């Protein structure tokens, strides 16, 4: 359906995340993957969705000079926002443990921004989901880190993993956003883009 609309466009996903790549395949659209290294740093004054918006746009910058008129580049970033602090990917097991301990028996936000860039426009949107964890025991946290090694995940967990199944007690918003992409908004935005262009 959407793929038919996009037949005159070239969709480029700039993400090495296997989860985001799987979501694009599930949307039944043709796309290519292009990767360029970006130093993911942001000004300390930014908070909440400002951080993910900034980083999603930052990831688009290296591609701008090479975009063709029919290209649509999609970049994205996800953070966990908890106690007025952005929690990114843990560097090691100790950091992962500290992050998960802070999320235990509490509610946090998962914020994902998606930036759509073409040769003649740029549009950035974000989505926020509230996730509540039960009180996690130290043994549960240690088991999860040892067996699932969540070092590539913002907030040190994947909701689709074991810890999400046994630990998440409530979700307000998009489940897929917590996995790393607000798929419904991507679908809606791509439809809007091809209807205009």
TrEMBL record:
<keyword id="KW-0963">Cytoplasm</keyword>
<dbReference type="GO" id="GO:0005737">
    <property type="term" value="C:cytoplasm"/>
</dbReference>
<dbReference type="Pfam" id="PF02545">
    <property type="entry name" value="Maf"/>
</dbReference>
<dbReference type="GO" id="GO:0036221">
    <property type="term" value="F:UTP diphosphatase activity"/>
</dbReference>
<dbReference type="GO" id="GO:0036218">
    <property type="term" value="F:dTTP diphosphatase activity"/>
</dbReference>
<comment type="similarity">
    <text>Belongs to the Maf family. YhdE subfamily.</text>
</comment>
<feature type="active site" description="Proton acceptor">
    <location>
        <position position="77"/>
    </location>
</feature>
<keyword id="KW-0546">Nucleotide metabolism</keyword>
<protein>
    <recommendedName>
        <fullName>dTTP/UTP pyrophosphatase</fullName>
        <ecNumber>3.6.1.9</ecNumber>
    </recommendedName>
</protein>
<feature type="site" description="Important for substrate specificity">
    <location>
        <position position="19"/>
    </location>
</feature>
<feature type="site" description="Important for substrate specificity">
    <location>
        <position position="160"/>
    </location>
</feature>
<dbReference type="InterPro" id="IPR003697">
    <property type="entry name" value="Maf-like"/>
</dbReference>
<keyword id="KW-0378">Hydrolase</keyword>
<dbReference type="GO" id="GO:0009117">
    <property type="term" value="P:nucleotide metabolic process"/>
</dbReference>
<feature type="site" description="Important for substrate specificity">
    <location>
        <position position="78"/>
    </location>
</feature>
<comment type="function">
    <text>Nucleoside triphosphate pyrophosphatase that hydrolyzes dTTP and UTP. May have a dual role in cell division arrest and in preventing the incorporation of modified nucleotides into cellular nucleic acids.</text>
</comment>
<dbReference type="InterPro" id="IPR029001">
    <property type="entry name" value="ITPase-like_fam"/>
</dbReference>
